[in-house]
Amino acid sequence: MIEIKNVKKIYDTGKIQVEALKGINLKIEKGEFASIMGSSGSGKSTMMNILGCLDTMTEGEYILDGENIAGLKSKALAYIRNKKIGFVFQSFNLLPKLTALQNVELPMIYAGTGISKRRKKAIEALKKVALEERIHHKPNELSGGQRQRVAIARSLVNEPAIILADEPTGNLDSKSSVEIMGIFQQLNNEGATIIMVTHEPDIAAYTKRIVTFKDGSIISDEKVENQLIAEVNK
Amino acid sequence: MNLFESIKTAISSVLSNKMRTFLTMLGIIIGISSVIMITSIGNGIESMLNEEFSRIGSNIIAIYLKGWGENLKDTEKLRLDDVDIIKNHKNLVFAAPLVSTSGTIEAQRSGATINLYITGTTEDYKYSGKTEILYGRYINGSDYSSKSNVVVIDEWTAKMIFGNSNAVGKSFEIEIGDMDVEVTIVGILKNEDNEMVSLYGQGSAIMPATAVCRIKDTDDVIDTIYAGVNDMSQINKTTKELIKLMEISHRSESGRYGVESYMEQVKSITNSLKMVTYFISFVAAISLLVGGIGVMNIMLVTVTERTREIGIRKSLGATNSNIRTQFMIEACLLSLLGGVIGVILGNIGAIGIGAIIKSYSGMDFTPLASIPAILITVAISSAIGIIFGVYPASKAAKLDPINALRYE
Fold first, then answer.
1. Tens digits of per-residue pLDDT, B376-398?
2. Does B320 contact chain A (CB < 8 Å)?
3. Measured between alpha carbons, how far is B58 from B50 in angstroms, rounded to an integer?
4. Does B255 contact chain A (CB < 8 Å)?
């Protein structure tokens, strides 16, 4: 599904060159639920940006869903972000003036999906995150956990190859955090491939695999022995 | 992302900050409405002048002797029989002598003194403009040959003297110089609604030229000859030939006679009016430029404010050109909306000014909004949106998604 070969990222600030990623090799199979851990400055965010096609690598190869991403132009990258990647951010990144439904419809607008199909799929996605009763609410009328659920619905609505979650529980209380992890586990059980960046070990414990970054390299890559199962009160 | 979605997004964005939208559009509204107002009033004046001159007739020319007073040789002066010489020129539809004088009438009924402008001519003079006989008849050939003191006066004068307009057959006295001339009315002419003659308290009368010459004791000398040309494309040739005819009949040197065309006069007046309109429009166009810079300024602010939104949209798959289109449409919408409001306000302003001019001058003045002016100004306002939207929109399109997403 994802194959990364010797990926390097060098930030050239003119005087000094900072090597944020020092030749990363990583393989993530379809249906995996992996977390990327590390302290700030470890290179995990840079890795995430490259995986999400928001940033380009200096060197190396990135094959996503059978397609080599290295060297693609911005238009092609926008297409890949639209079709193959679903983002979930720490700060939700919903458009405040749009309703939950309209926010979920956004990726489909850029994909050119027709209006009735768009509406139907958006409602389906919101049902998956148990928000079908709040589709006409704006983000400021929703709780943090609900906002993140809208963001998750938005990330999966174009049926992407992978969902990338960047500290998805960072702005949430522990109850909502468990709720969100429960939704990710449910999606993963239904076959979704999820990569999540976090610095909280107890959140990473809900995933199946933990990849740890330090100083631009992977220092450990382990399967989670006792995966926590989120109890979702329905 | 199709155009419809972009327009929807742009409309909701423009509506979400109404005060700012209004202030941004203000420059364009002022510019467009001034252009519309000025061109409408200019058009109104032009059509009023055309109307005024069309009463005289655009094909009318006047033949006259150059110079004045002592300088004029008796042999060169235009006389009644000169009309017969040119009358049959193949390019003329009519020719009539014109000899004028003025007099005063003491209206017995009201005691008022009326100034009367008397035109001595022939029956052919009726072809020189709009002539509508209300009662009676026009002067005719036998009036001319018998040098009768008969007049055709306008309705207004008839009312002033006799209290009603049907005064055919009645007589009155005109004081011309130190003479009292008794005349008989044979016809009444309708006044045009906005005819200036009645406006200034002056009546008009048409009399056989022979009678006027006799009263003035001028030995058949006339002021000018009016003629109607049947083919205005031949005007230069016709003019030369008529002058030649006059020179031959008076045995004069060349350059003594002139011909004036009313169409030329109308042209020169409307041309200078056009120049004024263009100039003021140019000044108004500068305010459009300022308005356009206002649009660009606010678009740059909008792009900065919405950096995060741009980042989000890009992360969801918006291409650079999607983002550029979105902001271009927003800029165009702002300036186009300003343009439309400007057109409406400009028309309202023109109608208002037209009403003021009408009430002060009493003339029938209607400002005319020209469709091309409206189309051009609306096109200009959308062009402003495009021109001044390009830079902010490309700035938005080029934003780096990672930095844009991090923007607080």
1. 888 888 888 889 999 999 999 99
2. yes
3. 9
4. no
Say how many Å lie between the first and final Cα of chain A, rounded.
Answer: 33
For residue B313, give the amino acid letter.
R
Neighboring chain B residues of A87 at a CB cutoff of 8 Å: 315-316
Position B329 confidence tier, pLDDT thresholds 50, 70, 90: very high
Residue A195 lies in a domain: yes
- B191 or B354, which is more confident: B354
Is there a domain that residue A229 lies in?
no
Residue A231 located in a structural domain:
no
The verdict on a CB contact (< 8 Å) between B319 and A75 is yes
Contact B42, B273 (CB under 8 A): yes
Range of the domain at A94: 2-223
> Does a structural domain hold residue A137?
yes
DSSP summary character for residue B126: G
pLDDT of residue B200 exceeding 70? no
Kindly determine whether residue A107 and residue B314, on different chains, have CB atoms separated by under 8 Å.
no
Chain A interface includes B405 (CB < 8 A): yes
Q: Per 3-state DSSP, what percentage of chain B is helix, strand, and coil (rounded to 5)?
A: 60, 20, 20
pLDDT, one tens digit for every residue, chain A (234 residues): 899 999 999 988 888 888 899 999 999 999 999 999 998 889 998 999 999 999 889 999 999 988 899 888 999 999 999 999 999 999 999 999 999 999 999 999 999 898 999 999 999 999 999 998 999 999 999 999 999 999 999 999 999 999 999 999 999 999 999 999 999 999 999 999 999 999 899 999 999 999 999 999 999 999 988 888 887 654
Query: CA distances (Å), B308 to each of A94, A145, A165, B130, B211, in order?
Result: 10, 21, 18, 72, 93
Name the residue among B308, B316, B402 with its Cβ closest to that of A107. Answer: B316
Query: In one letter, which amino acid is A19?
Result: E
B275 touches chain A (CB under 8 A): no
Place of tokens 């943090």: A144
CATH number of the domain at A198, please: 3.40.50.300
Q: DSSP assignment, residue B177?
A: T
Cα–Cα nearest to B211, from B188, B179, B166: B179
Contact A78 B309 (CB under 8 A): no
The pTM is what? 0.72
- Which chain A residue has the Cα nearest residue B5? A109
ipTM of the assembly? 0.94
**CA atoms lying within 13 Å on the CB side of residue A231:** 2
Q: Which residues of A touch B398 (CB under 8 A)?
A: none
Q: Which of residues 174-213 of A touch B (CB under 8 A)?
A: none
Token digits for B198?
């009645």
Cβ-defined contact of A97 to B317 (cutoff 8 Å)? no
- Contact yes or no for B134/B188 (Cβ under 8 A): yes
- CA of B322 to nearest chain A CA: how many angstroms apart? 8
**Over the stretch B240-258, which tens digit does the pLDDT of each residue have?**
888 988 888 888 888 888 8
Task: Search chain A and give the residue with CA nearest B322.
Answer: A110
CA atoms within 13 A on the CB side of B349: 19
Alpha-carbon gap: A226 to the closest alpha carbon of chain B (Å): 34
Q: What is the pLDDT of residue A167?
A: 92
Q: Does A46 touch chain B (CB under 8 A)?
A: no
Among B5, B309, B315, beta carbon nearest to A109: B5
